[in-house]
Amino acid sequence: MSDDRVPVVLVTGASAGIGREAAAAFAEAGMTVVLAARNEERGHRAAEEIRAGGGKAQFFRCDVTEPEDVRELFARITVTYGRLDYAFNNAGVPGDGRLVDVSEEDFDRAFSVNTRGLWLCLREELRLMAEQGHGSIVNNTSVHGLRTVFPGIGAYVASKHAAVALTRVAALEHARDGVRVNALAPGPIETEMLAASEAAVGGATTWRGLIPSGEIGTPRQVADVAMWLFSPASSYVNGQTIGVDGGFLAV
Q: Mind telling me which residue stretches traverse the membrane in this protein (predicted)?
């Protein structure tokens, strides 16, 4: 069992990008971090780096599209720590291709990870947090979940809209259980996923022309807002999707 004074936070999709940087930021803030991802090598390395820096972290392999993996993850969290204070549901994949061209496999993959995988994790988090009587969940969605920014990524856009809807429903259903559920809607963030989108939708080059500040965000900027949503400072914020986007959604 963990020290009751140290918050325990789960980060999915923690082996790279926003998830990896968020896990490091949470550890720096004094939290015990549970990293979960499919890539074992990168996941273990991320946890080792946090521990080498003096933080508390442990990696558990989990494919969020597999119900048994998700159940096993939460069983291990319960046995190891006895509770879960916060969760950052960050696992996600792109979904490139115009709707008339995208394959059934790619369309299903986007929803399997970005929507169904989110729900599978939410289900376990909500059960555990409702039982313990407290908790704060932050789902990492996208500005694409609030606005159709440009064509060519229809499966991704649709899956992120669904993720926003799941956030609202979960918040409504568990508001009286001491559990808050909110979402972040990042704009362009310096990650491998953004770099990979250059060919399909122009990546950072296109985004700089759309963001009022003209700047690309960093994973740490996303993590900082997640930490605020975890904290008592946001205790009256529930069911919201907050843009972390340099002002894009204000245009």
A: none
